[in-house]
Amino acid sequence: MEPNPVIIAATAKQTASLIFLHGLGDTGHGWASTIAAIRGPHIKVICPTASTMPVTLNAGFRMPSWFDLRTLDATAPEDEEGILRATDLIHGMIEDEIKSGIPITRILLGGFSQGGALALHAALTYPDTLAGVMSLSCWLPRHAHFPGAVKSPTILPIFQAHGDCDPVVPFKWGQMTASFLKTFMKNIEFNTYQGLTHSSSEEELKDMKIFIERMLPAVF
């Protein structure tokens, strides 16, 4: 992970934190202003940038990536070591927020595509109750290790969102991930966006805003 995440400070007294992870080839700047526009004034937004590495899926070209992507095939071998290393980094970011005085129940994780996959994996393997996780246009990495690898309480709020015309991460993957999660997690919301490709939309952002307001309400 790059040393300086994009941080957008709370505009009122900070009582919550939102860590959002970008997709393959992007940086923390890619989502920071979008997320800042849908959060409450009491929420600090943290958007880290993944380290640059060669990505097998893209013919070994170097780009920001949370872990190596070898193929977009649900049954293919994954970069398990890289996924676990990246998960540890995100857990470290959560710990930093706790040390700064933010309770774990006031920390929300989120991400898009590869970042959404990492956010989901990090939330499920964190041994305490986060405010929730937003996983956009993504899948569950290391799925064969679940539910055994789950350390979070089963009540962890999970917001999943996927466009039904996604040509990169197939909509079917999102559906299969949600169906699988529902076999061992109790609090899952799966949102479908008609005609949406591998991106976001106003409708999705509106639903994310509602989820953020519900999970991280203002505290007086």
Automatic annotation (TrEMBL):
Which Gene3D superfamilies has this protein been placed in? alpha/beta hydrolase
Report the catalytic activity: 1-hexadecanoyl-sn-glycero-3-phosphocholine + H2O = sn-glycerol 3-phosphocholine + hexadecanoate + H(+); S-hexadecanoyl-L-cysteinyl-[protein] + H2O = L-cysteinyl-[protein] + hexadecanoate + H(+)
Q: Name one Pfam family in it.
A: Abhydrolase_2
User: Where does it mainly reside?
Assistant: cytoplasm
Domain named Phospholipase/carboxylesterase/thioesterase: residues: 4-214
Q: What class of enzyme is it?
A: hydrolase
Signal peptide location in the record? none
Q: EC number(s)?
A: 3.1.2.22
Q: Where in the cell is it found?
A: Cytoplasm
The family annotation for this protein states: Belongs to the AB hydrolase superfamily. AB hydrolase 2 family.
Q: Which PANTHER family match?
A: LYSOPHOSPHOLIPASE-RELATED (PTHR10655), PALMITOYL-PROTEIN HYDROLASE (PTHR10655:SF68)
Designated name of the protein = palmitoyl-protein hydrolase
Identify the species of origin: Papilio xuthus (Asian swallowtail butterfly)
